[in-house]
Amino acid sequence: MDLTRDLRMLETSFSRNFYNGDSLDAIRQSKADGYFLLTAPHATNRWSEGRRKFADQYTGAMVQLLGATAGQSWLATDGISSDWTYWDERSDPFKLALDDMLDEGRYLINVVGVSARYGADLYIGLGNEPRAEELEMAELIEDTFADFHVITGGQFNAVNPKSVRTYARATGSGAIQLELAPSMRDPLEHPDTAGEFVLRFAELLATRSARCMDRADSVLV
């Protein structure tokens, strides 16, 4: 399996029409039986506060490849996203699909991009007052990528009211946000580390998902 090649191939679809896609608010998604939902809300261009913001490149390809490799659900924008202000007024396909999968009890991992100029490879956003499971997940990620520069909390703690992580937490779902530097997601500039991220994180997701599903089944018995 050539993970860097797969990332490049998947990204060609997200990048069509200069990351505007074919239609406003289009999405791409896949449901699986796993515990996790991976989201990429900035996989394509978007409008925010009247300005166009550009895509976080390779985040859509990343969640799609991780989902397929680890057997988890994923959701990504697939066309330019329209402007919105409040979650309770939002009714576009991304929001509807997000609600549907959160209602089914999935644990959210929101994936966005961050510039290399900040210095770290990976930032883990937990927000204010993280729960025990979120702290445990952050610790697992730190251990999995111990040879990379990983920062938990701090500057990239995802407390913006528009973040998908913040919304998921408000609905009662467990959620973290991952801010990926180019070293973790760009297979052209960083083929070795981007592929290594997919390999390690997919294994962590699959293992953790099986454990959480088993735990849930034992509670129901």
TL;DR?
This protein has 221 residues and is an alpha/beta fold. The chain has helices at 3-14, 16-19, 59-70, 93-103, 132-144, 164-170, 182-185, 191-220, and strands at residues 27-30, 36-40, 46-48, 51-53, 73-77, 107-113, 122-125, 150-152, 175-180.
Tell me what the structure shows.
The longest helix is centred in the last third of the chain and has 30 residues, at 191-220. 42% of the residues lie in helices and 18% in strands. By secondary structure, it is α/β, with parallel strands linked by helices. Strand 3 and strand 4 form a beta hairpin. The protein is globular. It starts with a helix and ends with a helix. Helix 3 crosses helix 8.
Strand-helix topology:
Blueprint (H helix, E strand, L loop, with lengths): L2 H12 L1 H4 L7 E4 L5 E5 L5 E3 L2 E3 L5 H12 L2 E5 L15 H11 L3 E7 L8 E4 L6 H13 L5 E3 L11 H7 L4 E6 L1 H4 L5 H30 L1
Parallel strand pairs: 2-5, 2-6, 6-9, 7-8
Antiparallel strand pairs: 1-5, 3-4, 7-9
Helix pairs in contact: 1-3, 3-8
